[in-house]
Amino acid sequence: MYYTPADWQDNVYRRGVFVMYGKLFSACLQGIHGVMVEVETDLSNGLPMVSIIGLPDSAIRESVERVRSAIKNCGFTFPSQRVTINLAPADLRKEGSAFDLAIAMGILATSDQIIFPGQEKMLLIGELALDGALRPVPGVLSMVDAARQHGLTSVILPAENAMEAALVEGVRIYGIKHMNELFVELNHNHSTPSRTETGVEVFTMGVPGQPPMIVKKVTQAASLQSVAAAHSTDAELSEHTVISEDSKDSKAAQIESMETPEAIGTAQNDEHSGNMSPVESVQAQSNQNDSAIELPGPLKKSDPRKLVHLEPLLLSRQHIRELRQSAPATHEDYADVFGQQHVKRALMIAASGMHNILLLGPPGTGKTMLIKRLPTILPPLTEEEALEVTKILSVAGRFKDSTAGLVSTRPFRSPHHSITVPGLIGGSSIPKPGEVSLAHQGILFLDELPEFPRSVLEVLRQPLEDHEVHISRARAVFTFPANFLLAGSMNPCPCGYLGSHHPVHHCTCSDAQIARYRAKISGPLLDRIDLQIEVPRPSERDWQQSERFQPDGYDSASMRDIVHRTHERQLKRYAGIGIQWNSQLSGRWLREHTHLAADANLLLEAAFEQLGMSMRARDRVLKLARTIADLEEKNQIEAVHIAEAIQYRQLDRKKTGG
Amino acid sequence: MNKSDLSVNADSLCVAHSDRSEHTDERQDDRKLKGRIAEDTAAYYLDQQGYQVMTRNWRCRSGELDIIAAVDGIIVIVEVRSRSGITHGTAAESVDWRKQRQIRETAEVYAYATHQYNQRFRYDVITIQMNSAYQVVELEHIIEAFR
Fold it and tell me: What range does the domain containing B49 cover?
């Protein structure tokens, strides 16, 4: 049971005890998803203390101190009572500083210092500074999305997060820089007694049998005594009741004029307006027209409360559109890379079906350059994917530029090879998404693959199959999506020149060295990489061609066209079964969608036997062949497609060939 | 708060300790005297300010509350501190976190012992500056010094 401003008086004094209870909504993060949290505030008499319950972490426990200072510095009083704050659901561990605003507003509303219309449809998130300013928090997108699904219509949050929250459609966004922006005085000619007086009163006082002494009276909390008096004795209380009785209807009407009907149109208010006398209705009507914030009647003289007035703070869709900027275009293009047509084709296949790729070659042949241009040919993110990718970035605290809207380009992550296991798959005691999740729906590029610690590379095996990461902690299991294209590059041997036919450098590595180097990438990992491509040193012919700038048809624009077409073929074929890429095929869907021509089937079986391929490798060859066939716009997989797919597994063959 | 609950011990308001008595342990006695003067002055001041002093030196096993007063329906627990020089830091500084905790705990016992469960409480600190002749020079009243 909690009281809304319109009927607070009915609940506030029951069985001789004050019922001081308020409930607001906030949210916290669980993995990459937002979870709604009810912030309940209860004030009761007794020794002053504040307790926060509902499994809060230390950032939330400390929130009391921030809230205390913020409330004081906004000209309110922190109630000197027993304050209990409950974060429901009570069995969920909460973390982060996003509850500050909800706790502060809950205390202010419950101690009856503010009137907060529409609080039951409002999400409040934000960290408070000691002066009442709001600091941005991570993961706003997920929280606002959760609020929308929960049926809330409005969100109050830090101005820095407003654009990010605005990415969720159908929710009214109120971005504020300071908590004070929320409040307006209920009436302007109300003299605020000792509200700003937090100073020292100095006077002298005579003491019997002593010389007069200097007295310094230090008042910490403003208007403490007046607030206390209003709630203390029976006589004063009944007086208060009378005032509110008079003003109740007009207040209800007032609230209606503040908020749009769907936000506040509750049964209580209708009831009250039903009881209104004609005069009051007219008053309310005129109020509605003026949309003035002055209240008529006895409230004017006595009500020191402030009203939460949100309309001027609304972030309009018009304004959002104006603020939106288009993301800057990249200047990288495959036309910059000369020659290497077979690698470009392989990259095109990889991008079309999200197949993992490994480039193998001597130093300086353009492996890194080729992979860095992979994002330029990837199909754009769908709306749903964009929301998911943006949520992950937001949770990781990496979504800084929210003015550009949802992330529209596929992520490209290239972590340094000194990365640790938690850094790659996500970790810490309260897990944060790792590089594999940040690369979700995009590319994870591991440059110089053998330089990564083997233990780090091996953790990739599970996300490469399942397309998500489960991180178990004592408190909970967190699941982060991790559907990425793994792109790697490596040298053929430690010195880098094995089999390069380089005029000056010759490979100086011993067989044992080469074996050790190759062994860093385990068989199971290599098994999951569909395209293993050698990138040779460009020949003299390539070089001459490049000097004449002869187009070879492998520039980003034309490659992108082919990739998009191929991707659309897949989308059309897999519509309704929840996959998008050939690489995601498995089991029944794989058998169903890979029609092999007779000779293709023979070829595959022969390769399976002779090369000693694993079952997984066979399935992967099938999927890759499916993409190659799609690239050629063929419905049936032919022998050439299978042959091309098999020849891309070069390292596999080398290993089996001895 | 019922007014009849509040009784002021009028005797305690008189500040009658202006002479220094000779005693074997003079330092110990001086400290007691100083504290007594400070508390008497504080109680007198509170009375003058419209507070109703209910109890003085309420003791229990967890500690002592110097003055318990009532104003506007709030029970005010007052800790009185005095100093005569400035060499040992200010008196207000000496009410550190541990002392605050002790006062809170004692106040809890007090509230329980006197069956005042549903009252509002407030903790004030009064610091008193004395000169060498044990005369009060300055009184500082910090309202709601801690919670």
Answer: 3-146
